[in-house]
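Lecture notes, continued. The same structure-token format from the folding unit now serves as the input rather than the output. Read the line below as a description of shape only.
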């Protein structure tokens, strides 16, 4: 039975990954979820797994060397899946420091703990151990509107404090692979959407605002392009790279679903109108008139697009969920989890929203 240390498992992608792994492997794996529970971490995301015998939650900061070392000392960890990070570009523009602390220093603490636990006296590493570092396509910078894709060989060119901190953490992982032959993979994934996504990010923010008849903030001209991936497909990609990926390699995850932000907003509005039953009072609130162009994000990357050729060829992964299906599943999930949305949008989030948007 393999023991996974999942960091940031109470966040959006981490919690989806944990659900996916228990559905697939049931009692054949043990998952230890180490999470600090920042504003973005929410144990409600994991209610249905919290009583499993093969699931353990540890509340800790990945920057806390003692706490992280203790987890490695008390458990025979086989695999690390490292999600924990500060993940929102707009927050990184307002306050970069925490991004460097968590994303860069926290990754270093984890690398050192895994290295110390897994390294043999001759400097090689125990068989079967792997550290999978979950990263983003934003490290590659921005593409021209009319062509080109991100490949694993694309030079890094991050522009936001968020992407710069993720690029730095990728470089640290790479340096451990190159220097120590530390057993790791890096995955660089495109924008995810799906259940449990915090409503500071575009898709859940638009769904939530539209259902309340609140303005829908569009940065700049709304024509920035992102390559959207349903979160479960990301979880599948991580599992496949863990199982079949060649050590020391990087894999891009995503592809073939490029959309302008304004297109995304129109798709969400149309889908909401289609899915809400006649007579539901929210149906009257969902209107194109809510679309509000606001000042552009500073340093706003124009276009991201992944070429998933390598991951397809080497481990057989491809994006399975068509956007039209994924967005319906996501909206359905939000319909069924109104309480979740109420809980995460109260208090501190409300304060952030008011300061950020002023609309
Ligand atoms: P998220 O913000 O929803 O969740 C982050 C989680 O990490 C939260 O549970 C939070 O409590 C935890 N965390 C933050 N700081 C911590 C610390 N110091 N110690 C321990 N736990 C801490 O993020 P997400 O969208 O789920 O992203 C997860 C990972 O995937 C990140 O590394 C991100 O860079 C990467 N990624 C995200 C996307 C995306 O579209 N969301 C795309 C590609 C890659
Ligand atoms: P986001 O979900 O923050 O992801 P990322 O910046 O990591 O790609 O934003 C997706 C796109 O949507 C990005 O081009 C910025 C834009 N955006 C808006 O136009 N309005 C908003 O309120 C938000 C949050 C994002």
């Amino acid at each position: 039975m393999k023991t996974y240390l999942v960091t940031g498992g109470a966040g959006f992608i981490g919690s989806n990954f944990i659900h996916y792994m228990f559905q697939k492997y049931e009692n054949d794996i043990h998952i230890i979820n180490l999470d600090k529970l920042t504003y973005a971490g929410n144990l409600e995301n994991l209610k249905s797994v919290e009583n499993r015998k093969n699931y353990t939650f540890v509340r800790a900061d990945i920057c806390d060397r003692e706490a992280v070392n203790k987890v490695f000392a008390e458990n025979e960890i086989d695999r690390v899946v490292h999600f924990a990070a500060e993940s929102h570009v707009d927050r990184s523009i307002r306050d970069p420091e925490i991004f460097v602390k968590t994303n860069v220093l926290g990754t270093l603490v984890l690398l050192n703990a895994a290295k110390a636990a897994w390294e043999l006296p001759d400097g090689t590493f125990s068989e079967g151990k792997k550290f999978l570092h979950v990263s983003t396509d934003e490290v590659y910078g921005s593409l021209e509107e009319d062509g080109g894709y991100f490949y694993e060989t694309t030079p890094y060119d991050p522009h936001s404090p968020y992407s710069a901190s993720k690029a730095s953490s990728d470089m640290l992982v790479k340096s451990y692979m190159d220097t120590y032959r530390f057993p790791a993979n890096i995955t660089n994934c495109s924008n995810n959407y799906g259940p449990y996504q915090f409503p500071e990010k575009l898709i859940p923010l638009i769904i939530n605002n539209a259902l309340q008849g609140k303005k829908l903030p569009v940065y700049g001209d709304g024509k920035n392009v992102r390559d959207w991936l349903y979160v479960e497909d990301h979880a599948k990609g991580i599992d496949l790279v863990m199982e079949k990926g060649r050590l020391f390699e990087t894999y891009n995850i995503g592809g073939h679903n490029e959309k302008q932000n304004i297109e995304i907003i129109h798709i969400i509005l149309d889908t909401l109108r289609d899915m809400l039953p006649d007579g539901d009072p929210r149906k009257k609130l969902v209107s194109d008139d809510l679309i509000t162009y606001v000042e552009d994000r500073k340093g706003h990357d124009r276009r991201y697009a992944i070429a998933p050729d390598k991951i397809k060829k080497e481990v057989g992964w491809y994006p399975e969920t068509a956007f039209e299906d994924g967005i319906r599943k996501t909206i359905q999930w939000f319909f069924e989890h109104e309480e979740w949305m109420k809980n995460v949008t109260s208090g501190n989030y409300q304060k952030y929203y008011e300061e950020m948007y002023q609309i």
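Point for the exam: The mean pLDDT is 97.
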